[in-house]
Amino acid sequence: MTGQWIRGPIGPDADRRVTVPDCREVLVMVPHLAAGTRLVSDVVPLLRNDPRVQVVFSVTDTGGRWHGTEDFVRAQGGVVVPWQQAVHHDFDLVLAAGHNDLDQVRGPVLLLPHGAGNLASRRVARHAGPNGLPHRGLSRESLVRRGRLLPAAIGLTHDDELEALRSSCPEALHTAVVTGDVCLDRMTASLPSRRRYRDALAVGEERCLVTVSSTWTRDSAFGSRLGLCRALLDELPADRYRVALVLHPNVWTVHSRWQVLAWLHDCLEDGLIVVPPEEGWRALLVASDVVLGDHGSTTQYAAAIGRPVLLAAFPDRDVRAGSLAAEVRARCPVLEEDGPLLPQLSRAVADDTGSFADLVSSRRGESAEVLRSTMYRLMGLVEPARPAVATPVPCPVPVRAVPV
Q: What is the distance between the alpha carbons of residues 153 and 155, in angstroms, rounded to a whole number?
């Protein structure tokens, strides 16, 4: 990725190589897997079927790379441009789902979140250390470099984020576009496919699917309760329950796929369902009957589609008041560490968390339309005539245990 420049559809003499000429050139920035999966799965497909648009990908490499990111990008089958080549080219549109390296690219940037919303769940950013100052997200430090506003458009999921942006970086307010949440819209569109997803997972309608949802770092559900999946498998009757696990992409990239599956080997052998980080978690949540989660976005999405949530871990002191994570904490019970699991699961299934989806998105069902309109506006193109819609997510394909 950092070697010689490629002879692709961009760069010197590209007009002598291309078969389809005069395309708008779109760069997809992939600093890590979480950003990559959001853009590749939910945003880039809105540019399909248009011969006026050429999409290329690049893995940012300033300050090092997350393990597995390059493999993910190459697996998409698109043109992968070395980062040092990408930063020397003028693009018609740059898609980003993170603040990394925005000051290096050339072209109008559409900045989107890679989780549930733009506002932070944590009081203090992880990279800020113990002396970091509390923040809400959408900070001026992340949006402005040397006096230059970096995004041409900032996709907000909720009207509430407008006020946060007005407070933190008022000079960026004119770039704000309330797009809603494309991930939530796709999950909502997937709800009628619940039976199909359960069949793909070999769950059937007669069993209760219990899913453990974990973000990353040591205060997550997986980091703080590593034996939870084992305990669920041991305590829950196998003829009435199935157990599944969703892990944040950073768990996989930091520790490696091999290591995660090695840690879970016996659980996988005993029927634990684990989906890969690239895709499958949304279909799994749709298929689930109850979710044991934490302060991560996946748990928030589970609540947003109406799944009962029981909190297996929650770092109260580190979560920002008023955040989506704090709202989940206010509505959902906490799993007792020493208590039996089955009665707690039964009570959680009976609980009603209320309408959480309206807290995640204030443009429900509209995200695909607004996102595509914004991208074509930035490219200076007339939109295609066909409507932009949020499509159901694909069936989940569980991973297998690593060989002994």
A: 6
Helix, coil or strand: residue 129: coil
pLDDT at 1: 43
Q: Residue 214 in 3-state DSSP?
A: strand
3-class secondary-structure state, position 97: coil
User: Across residues 295-303, what is the average pLDDT?
Assistant: 97
**Residue appearing with tokens 């016996």:** 266
- Backbone φ and ψ for 324, nearest 5 degrees, come out as -60, -40
Shortest CA distance to 360 belongs to which of 327, 324, 328, 390?
A: 324
The three-class DSSP label of residue 122 is strand
CB 21 within 8 Å of CB 15: yes
Fill in the DSSP letter of residue 392.
P
3-state DSSP assignment of residue 217:
coil
Average pLDDT rounded to a whole number, residues 299-309: 96
What length does the chain have?
A: 404
The model's pLDDT over 368-399, given as tens digits with 9 standing for 90+, comes to 999 999 999 999 999 999 999 999 999 999 99
Contacts of 353 (CB under 8 A, 6+ apart): 303, 306, 308, 309, 328, 331, 332
State the Cα–Cα distance between residues 361 and 82, nearest whole angstrom.
35
- Between helix 324-331 and helix 297-304 the angle, nearest 10°, is 60
Torsion of CA 312, 315, 319, 324, to 10 degrees: 0
268/275 Cα distance (integer angstroms):
11
Q: In the chain, what is the greatest distance between 2 CA atoms, to the nearest angstrom?
A: 69
> What tokens appear for 250 in the block?
């950073």
Measured CA distances, 211 to 187, 191, 330, 393 (Å): 16, 16, 20, 18
- Please tell me the predicted confidence (pLDDT) of residue 63: 66
Cα 105 to Cα 88, 90, 234, distances in angstroms: 8, 8, 51
Q: Quick one: tokens of 315?
A: 């770092």
Beta strand ranges found along 31-76 (DSSP E): 53-59
Instruction: Output DSSP code: residue 147.
Output: T
Which residues are CB-contacts of 169 (< 8 A; sequence separation ≥ 6)? 138, 139, 140, 143, 144
Q: What is d(CA 14, CA 18) in angstroms, rounded to the nearest whole number?
A: 6
d(CA 95, CA 361): 20
